Amino acid sequence: NAGVTQTPKFRVLKTGQSMTLLCAQDMNHEYMYWYRQDPGMGLRLIHYSVGEGTTAKGEVPDGYNVSRLKKQNFLLGLESAAPSQTSVYFCASTLNIDSNQPQHFGDGTRLSIL
Amino acid sequence: AQSVAQPEDQVNVAEGNPLTVKCTYSVSGNPYLFWYVQYPNRGLQFLLKYITGDNLVKGSYGFEAEFNKSQTSFHLKKPSALVSDSALYFCAVREGTGRRALTFGSGTRLQVQP
After folding, report:
1. Which one of B34, B102, B108, B109 would you mutate to disrupt binding with A, by most A Cβ within 10 Å of its Cβ?
2. Contact A47, A55 (CB under 8 A)
3. How far apart are CA B45 and CA B108, in angstroms?
4. Whole-number pLDDT of residue B113
5. pLDDT 10s digits, A57-82
């Protein structure tokens, strides 16, 4: 099992450019999450999904969009990148709400916006 | 609302000595509490969780945590630190009902000196 795989691992963008971060999990998990990690601020939830075809806003959703067309994939989009979106982005997944199982994390995407 | 506080940005301890990483939480209902560890350039890895039952929870790599409801704390402990324990540690909480996403603390960097 690969677990949670994030692509790409690194990316540098110019302000105003767009891009999509891909998260794939092979554990048949229902719930998937996108976080951003900034120094001294821990992880902040951007968007999450409780199942295929569903998405919901988290703590810091502005400037991002997401889609969950397939159960195993959760995409995070930046339509017009801004320097404030320079961060490390983590995807996570968990089985379902009733299992109380921990979240499994990918290794992150390091994104720099110039 | 739910929140987590990790009051120490960094904890320094000598190898072989006991270590404690502090965490306090705030939730409306019953808390579900988690500890994760992050090594450089990696995603978060699950260490242990408290859902219900015994207040002392044992987890991976010899770590344990004590749930204290009256002090709303969930401190991470290890009897004898190893240099390889040096990493970034995150406490996380969610309410047992209602909001399902985890809220993470800001993280504590543990430095174990040889």
Report:
1. B102
2. yes
3. 15
4. 96
5. 999 999 999 999 999 999 999 999 99
A53: tokens are 């075809």
Nearest residue in chain B measured CA to CA from A38: B106
In whole angstroms, how far apart are CA B104 and each of A2, A33, A79, A80, B97? 25, 13, 27, 27, 17
Q: Is the pLDDT of residue B99 over 60?
A: no
For A29, A53, A75, A103, B103, the CA distances from A50, given in Å and listed in that order, are 9, 9, 14, 13, 17
Per-residue pLDDT tens for A35-52?
A: 999 988 889 999 999 999
How far is the alpha carbon of B66 from chain A, nearest alpha carbon, in Å?
18
**Cis peptide bond N-terminal to A8, omega within 30:** yes
User: CB contact, 8 Å: B98 with chain A?
Assistant: no
Residue A80's pLDDT is 96
From A107, which residue of chain B is nearest by alpha-carbon distance?
A: B43
Residues of B in contact with A35 (CB under 8 A): 104
Cα–Cα–Cα angle for B39, B41, B44, rounded to 5 degrees: 50
CA distance A92 to A90: 7
What is residue B30's predicted lDDT score, i.e. its pLDDT? 86
Residue B98 has pLDDT above 70, yes or no: no
